[in-house]
UniProtKB/TrEMBL annotation:
Assigned GO CC terms: cytosol
UniProt catalytic activity: N(1)-(5-phospho-beta-D-ribosyl)glycinamide + (6R)-10-formyltetrahydrofolate = N(2)-formyl-N(1)-(5-phospho-beta-D-ribosyl)glycinamide + (6S)-5,6,7,8-tetrahydrofolate + H(+)
HAMAP family registered for this protein in UniProt: PurN
GO molecular function, one term: phosphoribosylglycinamide formyltransferase activity
InterPro entries from the UniProt entry: Formyl_transf_N, Formyl_transf_N_sf, GART
Protein name: Phosphoribosylglycinamide formyltransferase
Keyword Amino-acid biosynthesis listed: no
Binding, N(1)-(5-phospho-beta-D-ribosyl)glycinamide: G11, S12, N13
Keyword Ubl conjugation included in the entry's annotation: no
Amino acid sequence: MRVAILISGGGSNMLALADSMTGAHPARPVLVLSNKPDAGGLEKAAARGIATACVDHRPFRGDRPAFEAALHDRLVQAAPDLICLAGFMRVLTENFVEAWAGRMLNIHPSLLPKYRGLDTHARAIAAGDSEAGCTVHEVTPALDDGPVLGQARVPIRTDETPETLAARVLVQEHRLYPAVVARVATGDRRRIDL
Ligand code: GRF
């Protein structure tokens, strides 16, 4: 299975995925693509011998369809069977999502359907939740809303800050995403709960 990974920043989830796809694993990373030329993950991917590319969204200034057409064309060149959004911070329109329907996953740092969107950890703490976590889901046109393929949970501590919670959730993200992709690569989309 050919996997393209989309990032916007450090790419710690991309690294966890890339480092899991070795040996007998049926998937391989064929492209790491960022919308930001300075994304730290691009260098890390290149250091691992993974093809990288950048489709900078800034020259498209608000012309989202043009940006997404460039993104789509670059992805088509790589011919992925699966796209993994991993810390990719651009909202994708219905047109783009439908073109890759069923072949695009995302990891979101909350226990969806709770806390779609941003600032998930601060919101969970403010709500007095006893636990937080992360979700891998199929990407559908609605934001952070597609079928859930996996979740991992962490307890929220009494002296928790968004930063301390994010760090513990990130550890679980690096376990969950590779586990889900490994299962999806065998054609199995049953949900995983860690
Ligand atoms: C992670 O919390 C991930 O859930 C969110 O972006 C954050 C950074 O991810 N989508 P990464 O370190 O760039 O993979």
